[in-house]
Amino acid sequence: MRELFREQDITRVSYYKAVLESHEIPTLIRNEYLTGAGLTEIPIPEFFPALCVLNDDDYENAVSIIREHLTVNQKNADLEIRCISCGEANPGNFETCWSCGGALPVLGN
Ligand SMILES: [Zn+2]
Predict the structure, then answer these.
(1) What residues form DSSP beta bridges with 81?
(2) What Rg do the C-alpha atoms of the chain give, in angstroms?
(3) SS3 for 28?
């Protein structure tokens, strides 16, 4: 099993899970039920829902599918935020890096 990304917003994690399963890639969400329980007021990335592929062999494939969807589905595809931690490009409406889970700089409205 290998983690693809983690994201505070479970709806986005579920969305990509559905996308990958439509490509017949078995996935699993870790920490699905840990957030939103009011354990802490400060979001802790370690406890964010994490999307994982069950088979490590699917990892590269899954990443490229997610990347495709990031560009295709993004209304503001030209609006990218570079992750400070790993340098990966993220869509402008992401709050945490899809790749490493680090906090992204907030874009001004
Ligand atoms: Zn990152």
Answers:
(1) 90
(2) 14
(3) strand
Measured between alpha carbons, how far is 100 from 109 in angstroms, rounded to an integer?
A: 25
**CATH 3.30.70.790 given to domain 2-76:** yes
- The two structure tokens encoding residue 81: 């935020």
Residues with CB under 5 A from ligand 1 (ion): 83, 85-86, 88, 97, 99-100, 102
Task: Look at the pTM and tell me if it is higher than 0.85.
Answer: no
Residue-range domain boundaries for the chain: 2-76
For residue 90, give both structure tokens: 């993220």
- Helix, strand, coil proportions of the chain in percent (round to 5)? 30, 20, 50
Structural contact between residues 83 and 99, judged by C-beta atoms closer than 8 angstroms = yes
Q: CA-CA distance, 82 to 87, in Å (whole number)?
A: 5
* Ligand 1: centre distance to CA 98 (Å): 7
Task: Give the pLDDT of the chain (109 residues) as one tens digit per residue.
Answer: 999 999 888 888 998 999 999 999 999 999 887 655 555 566 677 788 999 999 999 999 999 998 888 765 555 545 778 888 999 888 877 888 999 999 887 654 4
